[in-house]
Amino acid sequence: MNIRPLNIKGTAKTPEIVFSEEDSIIDIKGKSIPENHHTFYSPVFEWLEEFASNPPDRTRVNVYLEYFNTSSSKVLLKIFKFLEEVSVKGKEVEIVWFYEEDDLDMKECGQDYSTMLNMPFRMIEVEGG
To answer: Lowest CB count within 10 Å: 26, 42, 47, 97, which one?
Structure first.
């Protein structure tokens, strides 16, 4: 397996998205309110296409978002559905959704995603900071 790195730096309006080949972990952190979600997320989907052609046996996706807008929620679902296809092909993919204990909106969003996907989806409550 030799997957090209994915390392998108986060900004005030866009999340950091990093793939660690060593651990087979995709981290999505920060806020997702890009001016143009298509422009921002296009390289992610190009990378996912390559990733899906030769995925590792196990992949974990850690999602820790403080906030995201409606267009980003649709993009997240598209990313999750894409990864679900990888899991259907016999590879183990798990989504881990982190939310702060007092952030009921993010908790509900995670619960909503978990019902839309046919793959392991774990929710982890963390202390607010």
So the answer is: 42
The predicted-structure confidence for 78-118, as pLDDT tens digits, reads as follows 999 999 999 988 999 999 999 999 999 999 999 999 999 99
Is residue 16 within 8 A of residue 29, CB to CB? The reply is yes
Structure tokens at 34: 């890009």
Considering the entire predicted model, what is its pTM?
Answer: 0.94
Residue 1 DSSP label:
-
Sign of CA dihedral 125, 69, 109, 89: negative
Q: Which amino acid is at 60?
A: R
Dihedrals phi, psi of 88, to nearest 5 degrees? -65, -30
- The strand ranges marked E within 69-126 are 92-100, 121-126
